[in-house]
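quick one before i forget lol
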Amino acid sequence: MEFIADYGSFLLKTVTLVIAVLILFGGLIALGSRNKSSGREGDLKIRKLNEELEDHKDQIDEAVLSDAVLKQRDKDRKKEDKAKAKAEKKAASGDKADDTKRVFVLDFDGDIKASDVELMRHEVTAILTQASKGDEVVVRLESGGGMVHSYGLASSQLKRIRDKGIQLTVCVDRVAASGGYMMACLADRIVAAPFAIVGSIGVVAQLPNFNKLLKKNDIDFELFTAGEYKRTVTMFGENTDKAREKFQADLEDTHGLFKQHVKQFRPRVDIEAVATGDIWYGQQALDHKLIDEVGTSDEYLVAACERAEVYTVRYEYRRSLQERIGLAAEAAFERAATKVLTAVNKQMQSKG
């Protein structure tokens, strides 16, 4: 048994190293591709969710219903389609305004730089050319936060929707923390899954300091600035108490702005109770009024399809063959890493 445990430990270390190398290689390829995408032209990809749901329903029906029932269903559907076409024709002729509600769905998957904001800018602009006050925008948001200025810009994109008087709903299936919640709190309604992580209304900054190591090796580090606070704490210089105090004061100021932002858009929240940097899961977040409803984005959108026309809107850059290969390699490495780590996790659990 000791041999098996040693072998398992060796295997885990080896697999971890290989996966790290593969992910780094794929990431470098994809990073170069993404950097080239900046400023590039792209296209909007729009899908109607109502039609996709109907297709899924048809496939299930064909598998479980009798021929007689299917035949009657087809007759009823032809009548409905004819009536709908007639109504659309009448609306197009100007006899009656089309008052069908539309729901536009965006996806935001946030990294530390909120990189998806570049796509969101195009998506929001496109939607605002068509959306009216009777419509709704739903954002499926996933983010653990990151740089303040980047998430500030992402939040501003959502504020554009609110400023137009269009209902904004944010759905959180996994996490909307820190900068992610900075975005989410702008919504008229926040829906979070039961075990989604919400909150982390705080600010954090950390950096290593190599000054003692440099001194030990007789290496001088010189920093020249104009302006008392042009640089406070550094990685290589000797940090003073005054510099640390200024840096901490800057963090407190940023935290204060964050709290004001949340309080402005979620006035029912007891901001002092929740702005501790702590996180909450779905029901806990509801109790603290950080969200308005516990549920998944799937539940929300399926229900929306029953009362509105629902469209997903995604802006995608036009990519060269080299860029597509790089992204495909990154995705393949990521899938392989996930499968291996899952298998190792199952093996370790079985031994326990």
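fyi The two ends are 12 Å apart (CA to CA).
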